[in-house]
Amino acid sequence: MTAAREHWGSRFGFVMAAAGSAVGIGNIWRFPYTTGTNGGGAFLLIYLAIIIGFGLSVAIAEMLVGRAAQRNPVGAFRTLGGGAWPLVGYGGVLTGFVILSFYIVVAGWTLAYVGFMASGSIHTTDAGQLSQVFSGFVADPVRPILYSGVFMALTAWIVVGGIAKGIERWNKILMPALFVILLALVLRAVTLDGAAAGLGFFLKPDFSKVTAETFYAAIAQAFFSLSIGMGTLLTYGSYLSRHEHLPKATLTVAMVDTSVAVLAGLMIMPAVFAFGFDPSAGPGLTFVTLPAVFASMPLGALFGVLFFTLLAIAALTSAVSILEPMVCYFVDEHCMSRRKVVIVAALVCFALGIPASLSFGIWSGVTIGGRNWFDLMDFLANNLMLPLGGLFTALFVGWAWKKATHELSNEGSLHLPWAPVWLFVLRFLAPLGILWIMASALLA
Ligand code: PHE
């Protein structure tokens, strides 16, 4: 059992922390390249439909469970549901390990790129050369692993320090800064010569490219980006006081998250086309195209350093939120010291990150079911664990937990005429949508 629980200092602070969790390399790195490999504008539309159609409702549901229980994911499902429901919480704790193991690898690249930008070593618009620098670096068996270790250590250091003061304060400063830099870079990218082709690709839907896989990719991306399905929102919600207007706060977070993803697309796609890169280049997209943009703008090196610093920070605020649920679980349920849990969890995640990093180099040929370790972790987390976590959260709040709407309305004090729609989404639309999308893609 927990002692008096710490709460967020202010509503703004909470929204920034939740937005800091949502906005991460999922938006700026994963979203643009996933859009690129899934046919551009059509993917964007499906993605938005999923966020509005059920992503938002599931996010509200997950946060609500945390707020009502004021506990970690396992404890929350145990107190409110009992029976087998805590399994959903355990699944979340496990998912945290899986996600962090590959998240820290990409986050480590962003740290390295801060250095590359500062040293001016990749100040060129030559697509071939930039691709070579990237693939050479990520294939290195040592350096990227060291960077992921540094990143893991930073994450652990913040989490050891506790929640409200550290996370909240950092997010309040860093998230607005991220927004400003992003806007400046979007302005530069859309005014590049030849930007129109990229904008067309990103915004014009080409439905001939849409398959069951497109939907699957969109749901995986939506859940990953909104941090749904592994107990992050639940845990952050558990530090929220009962009086907050939870739906409004969640809506704000979803809007910030989605805007940043769209802005990242607007920043990257024009550059991809203007400099002759391939939009379906995959994970390297951000790391090879943006340096070309920086090399073509005044004070580019400075913007480059700023951008990769902010990307690293966005990754950090997300990584903290991936680590926190498991830490919260071991501290709450097993009465372990926060420091000890953090150190052990961080070491485990770092170890799991080593094969993920080597997947881009000497272990690229080592595959399980056709996927190397990195792709396998990404696939397991995003395509299976998060959607299933979201599915069971929706089922729990929709069917099993009778007090859901009562809690949502702060015990009747908020007027929420749309609450029945929300409940309908959780009962039918979200579970059936998730199952249908997963089944049609997996059986295809
Ligand atoms: N939403 C984060 C991102 O887009 C990743 C994340 C996933 C964070 C799950 C917490 C939980 O980068």
Automatic annotation (TrEMBL):
One GO cellular component term noted in the UniProt record for this chain: membrane
Family annotation (CDD domains): SLC6sbd_Tyt1-Like
Signal peptide region: none
PROSITE patterns: NA_NEUROTRAN_SYMP_1, NA_NEUROTRAN_SYMP_3
This protein's UniProt keywords: Membrane, Symport, Transmembrane, Transmembrane helix, Transport
Sequence similarity: Belongs to the sodium:neurotransmitter symporter (SNF) (TC 2.A.22) family.
NCBIfam families: Na_transp (NF037979)
Protein name: Transporter
